[in-house]
Design goal:
The structure is a single chain. Helix content is 47%, strand content 17%. By secondary structure, the protein is an alpha/beta fold. The chain has 11 helices and 12 strands. Helix 3 (72-84) runs parallel beside helix 4 (97-109). The radius of gyration is 23 Å and the shape is elongated. The strands form 2 sheets. A 6-stranded parallel beta sheet has the order 2-1-3-4-5-11, with helices on both faces. The longest helix has 24 residues, at 2-25.
Length: 330
């Protein structure tokens, strides 16, 4: 009996030692930043939820900052403020690579690990990128449009012009359209993160008839799909193909109602969740030098890109995503 008791006590002691070791690795004094524009959008609220969940699991501090709208200069200010605070790491979505590259490079020079998320600055000194393969995602959207519309028609694209991720998506669509010369992109609308702009421009295009009639709208951002579908619905007896981006509750409801055909889905929660955990790992096990170009190193400890995945949601699988979105908000 004494031997058994001794073994039990030893195991309890080992468990306590292991727990103490885990607690010693992490501290609320360790601070990690998630920085982006358009913080008011559900997409970024989902990313922030993933970031904060990982922080809670590790018992570290998560700070989510950035402008509510599309303002690269304001995002740069938040980046500079974060660097001055000397955090354990920064996860940043790049709204404008030219604007943000100097701040990213300065952070890395200061020994702060920086990972880009959702939208990349490939020419910066960031360690690597977590997010969507936006070129392939654009092709997925373009292929869906061809499948539903056919190989002839006028198309209007809604986007955030100049943002690296949306530019890649647009390129993917153009790649698909290059095989179908009778599919024309008649306009690329920069909504500047303003849903009202999307609604107003869609209404204008809905008024066109004859050879100028617009047959389809494709939205490369999470803000424009629902307002564009609302503008289409205002015109009685007229149907237009609408393809959206991401999975806000409004977008999913519009797919179920038939107002939006489909949406290309990303995983912002996963981006935020994985991003914090990876930053924490780098903070505790830093590379010998941050300034090294790991993208060209065949023995790099880091990948160049972590693809969090994309999928297409339409009326056939929308209920699955509605259930997942509902569960995720509880």
């Amino acid at each position: 009996m004494k031997a058994i008791k001794a073994v039990v006590l030893a195991m309890v002691g080992l468990g306590l030692a292991f727990t103490s070791g885990c607690e010693a690795r992490h501290s609320t004094k360790e601070v990690f930043y998630l920085i982006s524009v358009n913080q008011a959008l559900p997409y970024w609220q989902s990313a922030a939820a993933g970031f904060k969940k990982a922080a809670a699991e590790y018992k570290v501090t998560a700070r989510v900052v950035g402008p509510d709208g599309h303002d690269p200069q304001a995002e740069l200010t938040e980046l500079n403020n974060a660097v001055a605070a000397k955090p354990g790491g920064i996860l940043i979505s790049v709204s404008d690579a030219a604007v943000l590259k100097p701040g990213i490079d300065a952070a890395v020079s200061a020994g702060i690990p920086v990972i880009t998320v959702d939208s990349d600055a490939a020419d910066s000194r960031r360690l690597y990128f977590i997010g969507t393969n936006n070129l392939e995602a654009g092709r997925l959207g373009g292929q869906r449009l061809v499948e539903k519309l056919g190989t002839k028609g006028n198309v209007v694209v809604f986007t955030f012009t100049g943002q690296p991720n949306t530019e890649e998506r647009l390129k993917g669509i153009k790649d698909v359209f290059s095989s179908h010369p009778d599919l024309k992109i008649v306009d690329v609308v920069d909504i500047k993160a303003d849903p009202k702009t999307a609604f107003d421009k869609a209404q204008q295009y809905m008024a066109l008839t004859g050879p100028k009639e617009v047959n389809a709208f494709i939205c490369l951002d999470s803000a424009s799909g629902k307002p564009v579908s609302d503008a289409v619905a205002r015109v009685s007896g007229v149907k237009r193909l609408v393809i959206s981006w991401d999975v806000s509750q409004d977008t999913l409801a519009a797919i179920k109602a038939g107002a939006i055909d489909s949406t290309v889905v990303q995983k912002p929660f996963t981006m935020g969740y994985a991003g914090l955990k990876i930053l924490d790992q780098i903070f505790h096990d830093p590379p010998a030098q941050f300034s090294k170009d790991y993208s060209s190193d065949p023995f790099s400890p880091y990948p160049s890109f972590v693809d969090t995945g994309t999928s297409l949601v339409d009326k056939n699988n929308v209920d699955v995503y509605i259930a997942a979105a509902t569960a995720g908000t509880k």
